[in-house]
Write a structure and sequence with these properties.
With 100 residues, the protein is α+β, with helices and mostly antiparallel strands. The protein contains two helices and two strands; from the N terminus they run E-E-H-H. Helix 1 packs across helix 2 (49-95).
Length: 100
């Protein structure tokens, strides 16, 4: 059953409903977002809360998309390596005589 959890973002408090088993993850995500917003606030000329929230969201989304792209590239490289290895193994096995 969902329970309200209090999170703080730049000294503003929000109540967010979540399942008890998701509480720790929610608090960790809120702390991450709060830290990102505080970092942006130091560099922002107009540090309004809404603007900081949008900038942080775009920054985090950009990071996520970069990670996904990098991960996909690694998966594709691994798949290619596995395919080449399988072809090499197939070639070796074709040369091995079958027992009578």
């Amino acid at each position: 059953m969902s329970e309200p959890v209090s999170i703080k973002l730049i000294d503003r408090e929000f109540l967010v409903a979540c399942e008890p088993e998701e509480r720790d993850g929610l608090l960790e995500a809120a702390a991450f977002l709060d830290a990102r917003m505080r970092k942006l606030r130091q560099a922002a000329k107009t540090p309004g809360f809404d603007r900081l929230a949008v900038l942080a969201a775009v920054d985090i989304a950009h990071e996520l998309l970069d990670l996904r792209t990098h991960q996909l590239t690694q998966v594709n490289q691994l798949a290619g390596s596995l395919t080449r290895l399988r072809h090499k193994l197939d070639a070796v096995l074709e040369r091995v005589p079958t027992p009578l």
